[in-house]
């Protein structure tokens, strides 16, 4: 199990690092911490779906708003528009 989790963390971390380098994600994200947070998001939303919501709707429907919020925190800020 440990090997599986470390492998997932490393794969997600590599994707996050590439996203930061390409400008798709904020350049200041820490790939290791951010990948652990992603795995935590999956576990947390699964528990929410299973225990609290008792699977009354689909997992994706439960998890998607949390995933979107997670991704919002990783995206670069939109450039400010000068007014005047």
Structure description:
- By secondary structure, the protein is mainly alpha-helical.
- It is 70% helix and 0% strand.
- The protein has three helices and no strands.
- The protein has helices spanning 2-22, 31-52, 59-74.
- Helix 1 (2-22) packs across helix 2 and helix 2 (31-52) runs antiparallel to helix 3.
- The model has no long low-confidence stretch (mean pLDDT 94).
Q: Given the helix and strand composition, which structural class is it? A: mainly alpha
Total count of helical runs of at least 4 residues: 3
Q: How many whole angstroms does the radius of gyration measure?
A: 16 Å
Question: What gap, in angstroms, lies between the N and C termini?
Answer: 58 Å
**How much of the polypeptide forms β-strand, as a percent range?**
under 5%
Give the SSE order as H and E letters.
HHH
What oligomeric state do the depicted chains represent?
single chain
| Morphology | flat
Helical residues, percent: over 70%
> How confident is the prediction overall: mean pLDDT?
94
Which stretches of 5+ consecutive residues score pLDDT under 50? none
* Strand tally: 0
What's the story with the biggest beta sheet?
none
